[in-house]
């Protein structure tokens, strides 16, 4: 398993529908080693700390393989002709990973990188800002249907991260898969 890209972003105002909102969902790739503290990556901001950030949601990871789905959806909507650029970080993730999916990782598993350790805490629950980030009015619904949610991580051992860092998974209690917890949370929201 490997870390393909590391992204951070600053808060900025964007127009979503008819309103202007502050968001830090737009992340950009970092070419350097990035410091990882208990509250996340150096240079990264979160706006609404009730749903993003904090000790239990310090870092957001997303599988790179899901980008093919989002690019196909954007192409079908004609967005590739308007805005062909859809790089890693476009879904608001800090870490774009290879080799680990929501149905393979358990709440409590630890991702061991060469210079830090992160613990899986919960799946991401999409909000309306995701629609704007992917350019699709149906982005939240598509994430709910596919289960392509990614997962939040707490920092167990601070250090640094960089693109191309390998990592391994150390099993936690193995009671709840990220994918199962996501399905449960989505059902509650849709009920």
Rounded to the nearest angstrom, the radius of gyration is 16 Å
- Helix segment count? 5
Q: Kindly estimate the percentage of residues that lie in beta strands according to DSSP.
A: 25-35%
Count of DSSP strands: 13
CATH fold topology = M1 Pyruvate Kinase, Domain 3
Q: What is the residue-mean pLDDT, rounded to a whole number?
A: 93
What structural class do you assign from the helix and strand content?
alpha+beta
**What is the level 1 CATH name?**
Mainly Beta
Amount of helix? 10-25%
| Biggest β-sheet strands, sense, barrel | 8 strands, mixed
Order of helices and strands: EEEEEEEHHEEEHHEEEH
What's the number of structural domains? Answer: 1
Written description of the protein model:
There is one protein chain. The protein is α+β, with helices and mostly antiparallel strands and 191 residues long. The chain has a single domain, classed as PK beta-barrel domain-like (M1 Pyruvate Kinase, Domain 3), CATH 2.40.33.20. Helices cover 22% and strands 30% of the residues. It has helices at 67-76, 79-82, 128-134, 139-146, 178-190, and strands at residues 2-8, 12-16, 19-23, 28-29, 34-37, 40-41, 59-63, 95-98, 110-112, 117-123, 151-157, 159-161, 168-170. Strands 4-1-8-7-11-10-9-13 form an eight-stranded mixed β-sheet. A three-stranded antiparallel β-sheet has the order 6-5-12, with no helix packed on it.
Short description:
By secondary structure, the chain is of the alpha+beta class.
């Amino acid at each position: 398993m490997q870390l393909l890209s590391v992204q951070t972003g600053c808060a900025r105002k964007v127009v979503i529908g008819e309103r202007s909102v502050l968001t830090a969902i737009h992340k950009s790739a970092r070419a350097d080693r990035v410091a990882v503290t208990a509250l996340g990556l150096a240079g990264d901001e979160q706006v609404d700390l009730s749903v993003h950030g904090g000790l239990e949601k310090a870092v957001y990871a997303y599988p790179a393989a899901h980008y093919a789905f989002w690019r196909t959806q954007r192409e079908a909507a004609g967005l590739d002709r308007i805005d062909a650029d859809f790089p890693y970080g476009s879904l608001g993730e800090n870490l774009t990973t290879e080799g680990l999916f929501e149905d393979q990782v358990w709440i409590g598993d630890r991702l061991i990188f060469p210079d830090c350790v992160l613990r899986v805490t919960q799946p991401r629950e999409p909000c309306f800002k995701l629609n704007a980030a992917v350019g699709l009015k149906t982005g939240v619904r598509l994430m709910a249907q596919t289960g392509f949610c990614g997962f939040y991580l707490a920092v167990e051992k601070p250090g640094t991260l960089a693109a191309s860092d390998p990592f391994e998974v150390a099993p936690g209690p193995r009671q709840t898969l990220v994918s199962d917890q996501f399905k449960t949370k989505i059902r509650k929201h849709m009920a």
